[in-house]
Amino acid sequence: MSGPAAMIETRDLVKRFVKTLDLAGRIANRLGADVREEVVHAVDGVSIHVKHGEVLGLVGESGCGKSTLGRMIAGILPPTEGTILHEGRDVAGLEGPAAREIALKVQMIFQDPFASLNPRMRVEDIVGEAPRAHGVVDAAGQADYVDGVLLRVGLDPAFKRRYPHQFSGGQRQRIGIARALAVKPEFLVCDEAIAALDVSIQAQVLNLFMDLREDLDLTYLFISHDLSVVEHISDRVVIMYLGRVVEMSATETLFEAPNHPYTRALLAEVPRLDIRRRDYEPVRGEIPSPLNPPPGCHFHPRCPLAGPRCRAEVPRLAEIEPDRWSACHLNDGGVG
Amino acid sequence: MSDGVPTLSVRDLRTHFLTKAGAVKAVDGVSFDVAKGRILGLVGESGSGKSVTGFSIIGLVDPPGRVVGGEIRYNGANLLDLDDEAMRDLRGNRVAMIFQDPMMTLNPVLRIDTQMVETVLAHHEVDKATALARARDALGRVGIPSPEERLHAYPHQFSGGMRQRVAIAIALLNEPDLIIADEPTTALDVTIQGQILFEAQKLCRETGTAMIWITHDLAVVAGLADEICVMYAGRIVEKGTVDEVLDRPIHPYTHGLIGSVPSHNSRGRRLTQIPGMTPSLLNLPPGCAFRERCPRADEACLAEPEIAEAAAGREVRCFHPHLEAGA
To answer: Is the CB of residue A276 less than 8 Å away from at least one CB of chain B?
Structure first.
């Protein structure tokens, strides 16, 4: 990255989940069997950056590692390898107050508004606990502060003595947003934050995200499987497939001229309101298991353009034009 | 539509759940037709009654729910007059259902072949080898590679998308005239959803099966269905061909719903949002159920609007429809 430091940057971030051998496996190995540990490469060398004030959309199908990446950036999952830089500073090296400051600045909003709120806490405590504990407000100012945050996300402060189960899905998601906003973050990681909501409620929450961005000068990492939502809200988009970034560019460029064959396939599959009784031409094959990903380019078994090189060599994420990145051998000497 | 009688004709269907707190009118006066080889998209948000409509047609509404009125005519005969035995004969044979969760169809402890052969033998007097051959053909038709070997697998050995294909293959086994698909692609990834939609479309074109596709996703029915019924609070509020309804919605709810779907020309702009949320169906006040959220509501809406023909082939349940040009 040249120029001013990005708000968040990841360098070759890797997350592996290892299932260690259980007793039966170890005994079997003693007896001469060859039982291996299972390793999932959830995130496999991801380098992305999020600039100040932008919305970066992160898209991919199940198992592509988008949520794992989001959790690492939000600081709730330690990376196996690689570094996360916040304003140019390595997050891993920080301790004490500096680490806490960054932890507060990066907040996360979760997918399931039913599972992410403590059912035994009142809304005022869910929203008020963190700012109080971190000294954002004092005890005297807490009630007013909570009222202000609730109003900002469109909830009536009169309901703050209620419990989460007394709210609808859309309202709960607003509570989740209020909880994140209460500690005055600069950066929000939204992990499928509207996926569980009905269409008309989705629009309300999407509009809220856009208002908050303007009013509070927020930066977002917006994780979603829904391309139309990402196209609507993002400035730049990152496409992931099986733990790796396959394409990253400005939203207009990506949707008008997708470069990577996977992006093209994905865009062709998205149902759109303006395409009627279309003839679906599906991408062949399944998404491979991240336990046993194909060698070379992960997409090659499903790619219509794949050649011998794709099976052998991992394509590098290369800048094909300024600020337009793609990981495909076709941009770099062909597939032969 | 050659012989004039639609495959399915639902008239004034009412399915209520009689709870201690009162009657929940989940489906309250729903009427529509599905012709041979056509796909009807039944669209609505949670609690609009779209799934209960599907369950009512196939006779799977559990107590305290009960179909309390109306007619469900399948090839002319009213399904509500059939006894349990006759209904069982029809279900899985002439009329099949695909659920959102394929594990509602599949038994986790039986192999796929066992389950598929069972479905054939329950309705047809054929030998096991014939039944097995049919099962293999059905798996092949929904795009499962090497169906011969996959027949011996258990459901847990399939991925989510593959399981949904197996569930669809089971629905196809007896070549039904009508398939009710209840959000079958909602839990699937985009590329896998594309594959399932492709199979569904091919099926209707090739075999003339009529299909009801229940979904909350307008974009999916846009690419798939011939007609759309939009449901709100247990009633159909708008009905018409896909092009008519999506390009020129006339009910304020449909209007708002389409405005709230992000599309590629909505980028950077605010979405039209429908204020408030869907009402509780318990003790729904009289009058138009949408009036609390409707920008066009006035005193007239305190009365109950009837569904009426607004234009050729268009029906709408509203006192103030968007009829002016360009609305």
So the answer is: yes
